[in-house]
Design goal:
The strands form three sheets. A five-stranded mixed beta sheet has the order 5-4-3-6-7, sandwiched between helices. It has a five-stranded mixed beta sheet with strand order 10-9-8-11-12, sandwiched between helices. Strands 1-2 form a two-stranded antiparallel sheet. Residues about 5-25 have low confidence and may be disordered. It has helices at about 40-50, 55-60, 65-75, 140-160, 175-180, 185-190, 195-200, 210-225, 280-285, 285-295, 305-310, 315-340, 355-370, 370-375, 390-400, 405-415, and strands at about 80-85, 95-100, 105-110, 115-120, 125-135, 165-175, 205-210, 230-235, 240-245, 250, 345, 380. It is elongated. The protein is built from 16 helices and twelve strands. The longest helix has 25 residues, at about 315-340. By secondary structure, the chain is of the alpha/beta class. Among the domains are: about 40-100, Winged helix-like DNA-binding domain superfamily/Winged helix DNA-binding domain (Arc Repressor Mutant, subunit A, Orthogonal Bundle); about 225-385, ATPase, nucleotide binding domain (Nucleotidyltransferase, domain 5, 2-Layer Sandwich), CATH 3.30.420.40.
């Protein structure tokens, strides 16, 4: 199958990576009349979780023969499958058609500062396989792309035996401020065409977004809460958050919404990689806790080591994580007062020591947030656990490759 793939990342005026919410190289050209609205047909059937040809014709206000032609084309390309519907009186039951999520595959990666999780999903973002691997992002974007190519190739060779084509790729990266703070790779990150290179290598559109956004989307879908307000906080080597409101990710006018890791903590002057002092990352981020405990003589090299010490009952590690929670809660109190979310979800290495972390966060919220806004607030780990960001990224990719206009052009190119 020939895919109309991307040739460039979208960038802001400073050249920093921003979200590709749509495959920018998919030309919005006219398609043949025989293919037109086939993508809309797929969208309707997918949203209804199944429909008959008569129902499709009624919803699209077209002749039954026109609806049947679109359905047949989608069946021929594997996007739909036929299931027996209920019997309406006498005669044979009308065939019901439903979306076939196994028609394609999506590769997805959630990249952090010290490691990344790689996965492969179907077109409904259901994970087929995922795994965690260490990776130091300070090695730069070229090294990251090389590693992603190796990991993705391995997953395709080992875990995709269906023969379904690869439809899309999603990459969740640390925030722009974190990438800019990697001094020896600053200019590389700002100009490197990661999406383009991966798209060309695998022959499918590539979506690049901040990892906190993939986390927020994955969590909101997992919670089936498309009409609520959700804050999803990454508590790993660095701190950040994604915001989802009524099923939409809030990115801000410059793509910097959720950069709470660079909010100043009153009374602190710890140097931060961004160039400022006293940032939440420098005080309560996982890397900061590693440094604090190492200076006290503990054998810790990674955030996981800090959480393991706390879980083993080491008072110094437990108190360090609880104090980090207090600092995080101080910053989140303003977010709670501003947005009045129904829940705050947590994801990251520090969540391995959930009890002291959540206790510290809640302590500050009780003290600093408006009681009416914080009283019914739930604070817990993400529903999909470690794979939350992978699923959110796959959902972003699926939204692009299953867009009705994209499907029309895809089928027109493969008519």
């Amino acid at each position: 199958m020939v895919f109309p793939t991307s040739a460039a990342d979208e960038r802001d005026l400073d050249g920093a990576l921003v979200t590709q919410t749509r495959n920018p190289a998919v030309p919005r050209r006219a398609v043949s009349r025989r293919v037109s609205r086939t993508g809309e047909t797929l969208q309707l059937i997918r949203s209804k979780r199944g429909a008959t040809i008569s129902e499709v014709a009624d919803m699209m206000d077209v002749a039954r023969s026109t609806a049947a032609e679109r359905v047949e084309r989608l069946l021929a390309h594997g996007f739909l499958r036929s299931v027996n519907g209920p019997t309406n009186g006498r005669g044979r039951p009308a065939s019901t058609f439903e979306f076939n999520a196994d028609a394609g595959r999506i590769l997805t990666a959630h990249v952090g500062m010290t490691g990344m999780r790689i996965g492969i999903t179907d077109l409904d973002a259901n994970l087929i396989h995922d795994r965690m691997t260490d990776h130091d992002i300070t090695g730069g974007p070229e090294r990251l792309v090389s590693r992603l190519v190796d990991e993705f190739t391995s997953i395709l060779d080992s875990y995709d035996t269906s023969g379904a084509p690869l439809f899309g790729i999603s990459i969740g990266l640390p925030g722009r401020v974190e990438l800019a703070g990697i001094s020896d790779a600053r200019h590389q990150w700002a100009s490197f065409p990661m999406g383009e290179q991966l798209s060309q290598r695998f022959g499918a559109p590539c979506i690049v977004d901040q990892d906190v956004n993939t986390l927020a989307l994955g969590e909101q879908v997992t919670r089936h809460d498309s009409q609520g307000i959700l804050i999803c906080v990454k508590v790993g080597s660095v701190i950040g958050c994604g915001i989802a409101i009524n099923g939409q990710i809030v990115r801000g006018s410059n793509g910097l919404a959720g950069e709470i890791g660079h909010t100043h903590v009153i009374g602190r002057s710890d140097p931060c990689a961004c160039g400022n002092q006293g940032c939440l990352n420098a005080v309560a981020g996982g890397s900061a806790l590693v440094k604090q405990l190492a200076e006290r003589g503990f054998d810790v090299h990674h955030v996981r080591d800090v959480a393991a010490l706390a879980n083993a009952g080491e008072p110094a590690a437990t108190e360090a994580i609880r104090q980090a929670g207090r600092h995080i809660g101080q910053v989140l109190a303003g977010c709670v007062n501003l947005l009045n979310p129904g829940s705050i979800s947590l994801w990251g290495y520090l969540l391995d020591a959930e009890e002291p972390l959540v206790a510290g966060i809640r302590e500050s919220l009780i003290a600093l947030a408006t009681p009416a806004a914080s009283s019914g607030l739930t604070i817990a780990g993400t529903g999909s656990g470690d794979s939350t960001g992978l699923r959110g990224g796959a959902l972003m990719a699926a939204a692009t490759v299953l867009d009705p206009q994209y499907i029309d052009q895809l089928l027109d190119a493969n008519f």
